[in-house]
């Protein structure tokens, strides 16, 4: 037994060159051996089953204006620059963390003498008594 399932979809096609009404179709086939002695029942033959869709597909070709193409292109280029800047900054941060960790062990804390006699690099606290 041979069975063919045919689905037909009406289609309207609108392009700049042509405008047509046509149909799209798909075919699925199934084959089965019928042997009454082995317990396989059915009628021998070739069967075609049609399914005509009640929905219509409309295909329309539209071109993008040139200015819209340029805007999208600038957006893509800006996104690439932003992403590479973020990745570069993250890579630089990771490199500084990895390499500066080894350098910090070799340097000790150094106190820098300031002109007013303090040994810290922080500014002294100013109070009302010190301004008189």
TrEMBL record:
Protein purpose: Plays a role in transport between endoplasmic reticulum and Golgi.
Transmembrane segments: 69-95
Keyword entries, A-Z: Endoplasmic reticulum, ER-Golgi transport, Golgi apparatus, Membrane, Transmembrane, Transmembrane helix, Transport
Record has Endoplasmic reticulum as a keyword: yes
Native species: Strix occidentalis caurina
Membrane topology term: Multi-pass membrane protein
InterPro entries, alphabetized: Erv (IPR045888), Erv_C (IPR012936)
Keyword Endoplasmic reticulum: yes
Domain of life, source organism: Eukaryota
Domain called Endoplasmic reticulum vesicle transporter C-terminal: residue spans: 1-86
Subcellular location: Endoplasmic reticulum membrane; Endoplasmic reticulum-Golgi intermediate compartment membrane; Golgi apparatus membrane
Principal location: endoplasmic reticulum
One Gene Ontology cellular component annotation held by this UniProt entry: COPII-coated ER to Golgi transport vesicle
Entry protein name: Endoplasmic reticulum-Golgi intermediate compartment protein
GO biological process: endoplasmic reticulum to Golgi vesicle-mediated transport; retrograde vesicle-mediated transport, Golgi to endoplasmic reticulum
Family classification: Belongs to the ERGIC family.
């Amino acid at each position: 037994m041979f069975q063919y399932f045919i689905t037909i979809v009406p289609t309207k096609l609108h392009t700049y060159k042509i405008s047509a009404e046509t149909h799209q179709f798909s075919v699925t086939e199934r084959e089965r051996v019928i042997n009454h002695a082995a317990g396989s029942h059915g009628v021998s033959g070739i069967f075609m089953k049609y399914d005509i869709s009640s929905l219509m597909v409309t295909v329309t070709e539209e071109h993008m204006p040139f200015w819209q193409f340029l805007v999208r292109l600038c957006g893509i280029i800006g996104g690439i620059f932003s992403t590479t800047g973020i990745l570069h900054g993250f890579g630089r941060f990771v490199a500084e963390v990895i390499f500066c960790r080894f350098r910090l062990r070799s340097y000790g804390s150094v106190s820098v003498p300031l002109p007013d006699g303090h040994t810290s690099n922080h500014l002294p606290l100013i109070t009302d008594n010190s301004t008189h």
